[in-house]
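Below is how a single chain appears once it has passed through the pipeline. First comes the sequence as given, then the structure the pipeline wrote out for it. We keep one example in the README because the format questions we get most often are answered faster by looking than by reading.
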Amino acid sequence: AVVSTQSTGVEEASVRCQRRLANIVRCIARCSLRPICISGGNEDILGLGYGVHLGRTIARGTTTNLTLGNLDCHGDYKSLEERGAHSGNGFSFLNAIGCLKKYAVLGLTPYENREAMMERLITTNCWYRFLDDITVIGATGRPTLYQTVVDMTRALETDGGEVPGLCVDIDVTEDLPTVSCPATLGLTRLQVHELTQEFTRYNKPFFLLIAEGMPDPHTPLNEGVNRTLGKYQSTLVSCFLTNCISVPHI
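Resulting structure:
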């Protein structure tokens, strides 16, 4: 089992979904193929990450843990609650299971993250940067975006054979429809694309999660923000593959 819970209803359904996702991803990762998941809630990092952990452990014949980078305005590192996995604690569950070696989150807004969760990030030695760390121009006149990605990469470095992964939460992007908690401030689509590109070039992540994107129910699927959302997600997938495929993951 991926998660043990006493809850009922929606929470149990969420846990069942994560188990199914983990089983599918385990088969993909075992074959050394790169899993790509476009999902609703960010809790799917639990099933995706755990499936990669199991699949790569089987393929390598040794326990293989994860290092995860997350582009998100929320830390998604809330405490483990008695209602199963949800979009705010998927990374916490991976850490509790014991397969998350390092976690780094980039793009936080101070207005969207509670003090208790920020303390959890600090006490568990997670790396994080706020939105201003990306958007404010440095003393040399060069945007700090690239140096921030370098710093993030260094924070995720380990001496072992951990598998790197990347999560891009759509709610870090301005003016796109999201599932649950759209941020009051965010990055442009170009900035998120550049961050994805640079992170992928430096880290060569094995798997990708694009989470929290949701079509606007009041707009036809092929029009307006819904058309933009779908094309944007496909662009991020292409960016990921283009910058990973030149160096196969071993």
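The CA atoms of residues 78 and 89 lie 5 Å apart.

See the next section for the split statistics.
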